[in-house]
TrEMBL record:
<dbReference type="GO" id="GO:0016757">
    <property type="term" value="F:glycosyltransferase activity"/>
</dbReference>
<dbReference type="InterPro" id="IPR001296">
    <property type="entry name" value="Glyco_trans_1"/>
</dbReference>
<feature type="domain" description="Glycosyltransferase subfamily 4-like N-terminal">
    <location>
        <begin position="35"/>
        <end position="204"/>
    </location>
</feature>
<dbReference type="InterPro" id="IPR028098">
    <property type="entry name" value="Glyco_trans_4-like_N"/>
</dbReference>
<keyword id="KW-0808">Transferase</keyword>
<feature type="domain" description="Glycosyl transferase family 1">
    <location>
        <begin position="215"/>
        <end position="382"/>
    </location>
</feature>
<protein>
    <submittedName>
        <fullName>Glycosyltransferase family 1 protein</fullName>
    </submittedName>
</protein>
<dbReference type="Pfam" id="PF13439">
    <property type="entry name" value="Glyco_transf_4"/>
</dbReference>
<dbReference type="Pfam" id="PF00534">
    <property type="entry name" value="Glycos_transf_1"/>
</dbReference>
Length: 408
């Protein structure tokens, strides 16, 4: 990998030359608390800084709903503690003034930070960056973290504009999964030559298989024995994640005499936890489920036999929890939402089940929970796959390669 310092001479602003470091400015529509995008950006920022880059982040903070503003503020401070320069976008109730304010705040951030690359992580901000690029000739890269659809107003408008002129999504687009690469071409009207496939990477030093003692301690923390069959679903409690399908699958298993315990890790939004607890009572499995809220992901995985993600169609881009599970030696089961083709070879290093199919999930769970040899074989293959394909080092190297295409 070419050293990042090869980009030094390309700084666009003489005031920044004295820093002797190339810089990338991340642009995000809204910074939330602990979610996949925030986790990815923190990891990418930390690793780029280690490689000798300056990193900035410009974003508005989440609105104060369900404590989201407090979480977003905490995330912003976490970025700053890692050495990232954070530039907040002001809020406004006026539609026209809000658009103007975004442009103004972006311009100020770019002027102050003087990046060599602008890297957007929200398609909604691409039109603003296209306007700014008319005056500040800085290369732009875009990453979309969920499958783009025309039901999104920004995507629809951008696609309509792109059908008459050059695509407004940047000089390069990073697709985090094969499914998103296809969507970029079909939905965003982006030519294949501008798209680069870069999978998200996981810290494989942190996410690793547990020792016997670590596994025992993790189970003890949830009052689980070594003989208990344990399934986890890690992700915010929202309808898109399919918690209801897991609960129904547990009910189906119970009718077959198979008892599985479920660890549900993730913050609840709205009335989702209340609804899921009611469903658990209806299915007769309320005593088999633990609602953990936000907690240590690795500890949950270390206590688990199987990790499931029955997400609904269009709700994922490259679910981080699947490679995290694989790296911890936990067998993954997921639906064919975006990212599944790159992560899992069905029946080899995990299982892919149809959307909205609690019966299929129950069948797969029964097969692996009652067959330790099968579970161990597939979990081992999953670990090897993740170690080869989904490391932080691989992600950062591939990301820098994209940057260097534009500034060399």
């Amino acid at each position: 990998m070419e050293n990042a310092n090869s980009l030094l001479t390309l700084s666009k602003n003489s005031s920044d030359l004295i820093s002797k470091k190339p810089g990338v400015l991340f642009v995000l529509g809204t910074l939330w608390g602990e979610n996949g995008i925030t986790s990815h950006l923190l990891t990418l920022s930390q690793e780029l800084i280690k490689q000798g880059w300056r990193v900035g982040l410009v974003s508005k903070l989440a609105s104060d709903v369900d404590g989201a503003l407090e979480e977003a503020t905490r995330s912003a401070k976490e970025f700053e503690s890692c050495g990232v320069d954070f530039f907040p976008i002001s809020s406004s109730n006026s539609y026209l003034f809000k658009k103007y304010q975004i442009l103004l705040d972006l311009k100020r951030a770019i002027s102050k930070f003087s990046p060599d690359i602008i890297h957007s992580h929200s398609l909604s901000v691409c039109p603003y960056l296209t306007l700014i690029k008319l005056f500040a000739r800085i290369p732009c890269v875009s990453t979309c973290h969920v499958e783009p659809t025309l039901s999104n107003r920004a995507v629809k408008l951008g696609s309509q504009i792109s059908s008459f002129t050059s695509p407004i999504w940047g000089d390069r687009l990073i697709a985090i999964s094969t499914e998103l690469k296809v969507a970029f071409q079909k939905t965003l009207m982006v030519p294949e030559k501008k798209i680069r496939l870069v999978h998200h990477g996981i810290n494989h030093h942190h996410f690793r298989p547990p020792s016997l003692e670590e596994r025992t301690n993790a189970r003890n923390s949830y009052n689980l024995s070594s003989d208990d069959k344990v399934v986890c679903l890690i992700g915010r409690l929202a309808p898109s994640k399919g918690h209801d399908l897991l609960i129904k699958a547990l009910g189906i298993l119970k009718t077959k005499g198979v008892k599985a315990n479920a660890l549900l890790a993730g913050k609840a939004y709205g009335k989702e936890e209340v609804n899921l607890k009611a469903l658990a009572i209806e299915q007769g499995v309320e005593n088999q489920i633990r609602f953990l809220g936000k907690t240590d992901t690795r500890q949950v995985l270390w206590a688990s036999d199987v990790s499931v993600l029955p997400s609904r169609s269009g709700s994922e881009g490259f679910a981080l929890v699947i490679p995290e599970s694989m790296l911890c030696g936990v067998l993954p089961i997921r639906t064919p939402a975006a990212g599944s083709k790159d992560q899992i070879e069905d029946g080899v290093n995990g299982f892919i089940i149809p959307f909205e199919d609690a019966e299929a999930l129950a069948i797969k769970l029964e097969n692996v929970l009652l067959n330790n040899d099968l579970k161990s074989k597939i979990a081992t293959a999953a670990l090897i796959k993740a170690q080869q394909s989904f490391t932080v080092e691989r992600m950062v190297e591939n990301t820098i390669n994209v940057y260097q295409e534009l500034v060399k």
